[in-house]
Write a structure and sequence with these properties.
single chain; 315 residues; alpha/beta; TIM Barrel; 2 domains; 8-stranded parallel barrel; 12 helices; 41% helix; 14% strand
Length: 315
Amino acid sequence: MNLRLGQYAAAVLIAIVLMAAAHGSAQETAEEDTTAQEPVERKPQYTRLSSPEALKAYLAWTRGRTPMVAAYRGGPEPGFPENCIETFHNSLTYGPCIIHCDVRKTADGELILMRDPTLERTTTGKGRVDELKFSKISSFKLKDDEGEKTDYKVPTLKEAVEWAEGKAVLLLDVKKEVRNWELVKALKEMEASTNTVVIVTDVYTARYMKLHLPRLALAVSVKQPVDLEDYLINDIPPADLVALVGTAPPEPEIYRYLHRKRIKAILATMRSVDKVAESDSLETYGAYLELYNSGADILLTSKVPLVFEAINRGD
């Protein structure tokens, strides 16, 4: 018995020594490989749509739907400013995003991508957007969220729509100084109904848009069923809509109500999970997945990389 125990102890000791040696060798190899490897370049993942009807099918709710991501203001990161085409491209390297962007009008009527009514926060320029001509605004450089100057310039809406063709869907947040007829005219000229969704805040604007651009998809605010009914009774088909349900998860019945009509729900996370989100955090990934599992179809987020990591971990 003692002999067997001695043999067993010796065998265990040998195994420990061999495992330690193997671990050390593997660690050295890993360290060598790490120093030798170059960063892997992420390739953009495009959403290619052939028609406005294909866009609406892409946005329609179905059972077993795939979680979707919308990049708030395009998904800015250090070195990549908000409302910037180069930033849009960077966001697509994490996954196939919908690109949220803001639209304003310059003094000479050019529609550009810009969140604020003034230039100071996001560009090297100064002044109000609606008091400066585009030729002046285009001479400034964009700044990232940390205030660092970049080499990128303020894009026009036309440039964004042209870029998005065959790559992504744009979710347009159009500011009030842009009149309905000006937006309609611009979108018609760009033939933009295949890759744009316009956020509208009232039934009148929705009816005007659908009258002049019948194939256009719209995003409308729905906090309770009556909000959606106002659009439906005014001949806005549910197939043409996605629903913005707010910045906090709504009651489960709202999701069920929208899904019965095959309408996807967009939940904004900038004021909730995004504020406390951390990289490599299981709690963060779990929080995003819970929002999807509770009924949200599209998360409008400022943390694009983390949301895609959560989705990938949840698969």
